[in-house]
Amino acid sequence: MDRKTIFINGKVITMSKEKPSAEAFLVEGDVFNKVGTNEEIMALADENTEIVDLNNQTILPGMNDSHMHLISYALSTKKVDLRGCKSLEDLREAILSYLDSEEQFFGEWIVGHGWNDENFNDRRYPTREFLDEICSDRPIFLSRACYHIAAVNSKALELANINSETKDPDGGKIDRDASGEATGILRENALLLPYNMIPMPQDVEQIKQLIKSGINDALMVGLTSIQTDDFKHVGSYKKVLKAYKELYEEGDLDLRINLQMLLTIEELKEFSDLNIHTGMGNSYLKYGPLKVLADGSLGGKTAALEEPYEGDEENRGILIYDNNKLEALLRLAADNGLQLAVHAIGDGAMNQLLEIFDKFFGNGEKNHRSRLIHCQITNKKIIDKMKELNVIADIQPSFLMTDMKMVPARIGDKRARDSYNWKTMLEKGVVAAGGSDCPIESFNPFLGIYAAVTRMDMESKPEGGWYPEECLSVDEAIEIYTVGSSYATFEENLKGKIKTGYLADFIVIDRDIKEILPIELKDIKIKATYVGGEKKYMK
Length: 539
Fold this sequence. Notes:
The protein has 17 helices and 24 strands. Helix 10 (about 325-335) crosses helix 11 (about 345-360) and helix 11 (about 345-360) runs parallel beside helix 12 (about 380-390). Among the domains are: about 5-60 and about 500-539, Urease, subunit C, domain 1 (Roll); about 105-195, Diaminopimelate Epimerase, Chain A, domain 1, CATH 3.10.310.70. By secondary structure, the chain is an alpha/beta fold. A hairpin with a 5-residue loop joins strand 13 and strand 14 (about 180-190). The strands form four sheets. An eight-stranded parallel sheet has the order 8-15-16-17-18-19-20-21.
């Protein structure tokens, strides 16, 4: 017999247009059986029903992160954390401190993440000469905040066989000095040359522990579903799949996983032979879309633009694929039942993709639900085409809190005005799904909601918000992290709402999100997280 639990005396925000608010609900098994008033729900109680008093606390549907990297997040906790560095000297001290510690997770490799030249007074990158001064006998690999640029020392270049004769890989760039020697700055696919040499966990049990530690942290911020791109972070996508499957079989997946599958065309052919398609799985573990990278990052000046970067007339960023290769990859995926989810930050990359999507779906097919992940540097024409083709905007509002400081310097005020324009997207009828791209940003969804509503940084600046006409309402911001992200996985009739028949995934928060000031949204804390009606986290 399914367990029955009644939750009463709550401020329940359902995200259902038919019944936007409620006081109580009945959970039977792992779904909401009934939602309504205290009186209506208590009438359904019997001697086997557990009663939970919510004590007038605010309840929301569980949050659903539409794009992140769970294993990379767990790995990042083992790396040198460079996010707080305000100068190259800070970076030096962080590495030296790591060398003095007992934590050496990556063998002889010194691996760090999160440095951002925009936070340095002189805006300089950490070159190989600088890193050699810190340590020359061990390889150093430091990811920029965007994860699209890495700084390495001479030892890492040597181990990766990068020298003056090495050609740039497809979709990548090795920065060089006037003599043709590598500077230690590697962009896009070039950074994979040393990265793929870093010893990563190869034991499935180790990978499972990384996943579990990430899940525990995700539950603490109110996530009940995540859509995660993990296939390339430990070298073997097959071991990642095995780890997730074993966790499910062992009953240790405490939130719902949708796998975004970053695959080469050869690996994609293997998937095709196995007849794996988007949506296969169960309510806790599903195959999601094919994940593809079309360009780089705005911060690293590798996002592909239609017009040059400000003050850098020779640079329009990097398209990872030429049109023919990208179309062939996406066609193979679409023909084999895989949804398409493509990283595209610049308008150049988005136009490349929309042209391909138009070939595939311009005949009126609407339920493909292809996704543009990030879609930051947009314009009216791009948004109109997204609406026409029913392409989902897979956005990360938290990006805005750091990006707003450097966007004008990268693309100028005119293009900046048409960028990160989420309100315009919604008004045009584009479906938006909310995510974090963690570990690039925190996967706390309330930081994303805060950024979407206020368009301010963590210090509540600029006053009134950055292009405030693009601010979302609180309801709109919640919706992209619940209803919108569920639509992106074809699960809008299964999750994202507190509604009869939906999965009983919900959270208890520490304040009334409808009554607080917008600047308080970032301070919301989770008191309890329920997945399938079971309490998975309680503060």
